[in-house]
Design goal:
Blueprint: H1 8-11, H2 18-29, H3 32-60, E1 65-72, H4 75-84, H5 91-97, E2 102-108, H6 111-122, E3 128-134, E4 147-156, E5 161-172, H7 173-186, H8 193-224
Parallel strand pairs: 2-5
Antiparallel strand pairs: 1-2, 3-4, 4-5
Helix pairs in contact: 7-8
Length: about 230
C-alpha cells in the first residue's frame, strides 16, 4: 500500500512531476469509498456464481465450480496502469478507463462448464456484458487460455445505487495450473536468449498438452453422462 506520509517520488521514482504527485496523493486519500464499492461489486458477482453452483449441484448432483478467487487491484498497480495509458491520476479516470480493478477468477471442472456459467451470468437482468475476450477458442500466442468477461453489476448502498465493473476470468483446472506456473517461470530474470526461447517453446507445448487434457476429460464426461 502507498504510505501517505512519504514522498511519492521515493515510492514511485518514475513520477517526477509535482503536480502529478499531488494529484495522485489526493486521489488515494479520497479513494476509500471507490475501492469499497469495488469490493461490494466483487461480493455481488461472487454470490451470483455461488448461487449458480448450488443450483447446478441440486439439479445435476455435481458442482461445475472448483474454486473462486477474488482480488482488488493494489494502488501501485492502479498507478502503473494509469501511467502506461497516459491517463490523469484521478478517480474518474480510474472508473472510466480501468475495468479490471475488481477481479474474480472462477475455476471450473470442464470447458463446457465455463460457457454454461458465463451464459447464466450474463443472462441475468441486472448484469450488463461490457466486453468479452475468448482466449479458449482463440488462445494467446504464448498458449494462454481463459474466458475473460467485463461485466457491470449494480450495488445498492445506503442512499444510492451504483453500477460497477468487474473482470471475470473463467478457466479449467488445467488452464489455471498452466497459467500459474507460466507466470512464475516467465518472470525469471536474466535468462540467456537461447534459454528464454527454449523455455517459451516448452511452455507453449505444455499449454497445448493441457488443452488436449481438457478435451479428453470433456469427452470422457460426455460419454459417462449420456
Amino acid at each position: 500500500m502507498i504510505d501517505a506520509d512519504k514522498d511519492l517520488s521515493t515510492q514511485f521514482p518514475n513520477i517526477d512531476n509535482k503536480e502529478a504527485m499531488d494529484s495522485f496523493r489526493e486521489t488515494m486519500a479520497s479513494s476509500q469509498a471507490l475501492m469499497s464499492r469495488y469490493r461490494c461489486a466483487i461480493m455481488e458477482v461472487e454470490t451470483k456464481f455461488r448461487v449458480l453452483n448450488e443450483q447446478f449441484s441440486l439439479q445435476h448432483d455435481r458442482n461445475p465450480i472448483e474454486s473462486i478467487k477474488t482480488r482488488l487491484k493494489s494502488p501501485e498497480s492502479i498507478l502503473g496502469k494509469l501511467r502506461r495509458k497516459n491517463l490523469p491520476l484521478t478517480l474518474s479516470a480510474i472508473e472510466n478507463n480501468l475495468f479490471d480493478i475488481a477481479g474474480i477468477r472462477v475455476i471450473c471442472s470442464f470447458v463446457d462448464d465455463i460457457y454454461m456459467l458465463a451464459d447464466c451470468l450474463i443472462s441475468q437482468d441486472d448484469i450488463t456484458l461490457v466486453e468479452e475476450k475468448d482466449y479458449i477458442r482463440n488462445p494467446k500466442e504464448n498458449g494462454y487460455r481463459s474466458l475473460h468477461l467485463i461485466v457491470e453489476v449494480p450495488i445498492f448502498l445506503q442512499d444510492e445505487k451504483r453500477n460497477m465493473k468487474v473482470e471475470v476470468q473463467l478457466r479449467t483446472i488445467a488452464m489455471e495450473f498452466w497459467a500459474n506456473l507460466e507466470h512464475r517461470l516467465r518472470y525469471k530474470k536474466d535468462l540467456p536468449e537461447d534459454v528464454l526461447a527454449a523455455t517459451e517453446n516448452s511452455l507453449l507445448e505444455c499449454a497445448n498438452i493441457s488443452s488436449m487434457l481438457d478435451e479428453k476429460m470433456q469427452s470422457i464426461r460426455d460419454v459417462v453422462e449420456k
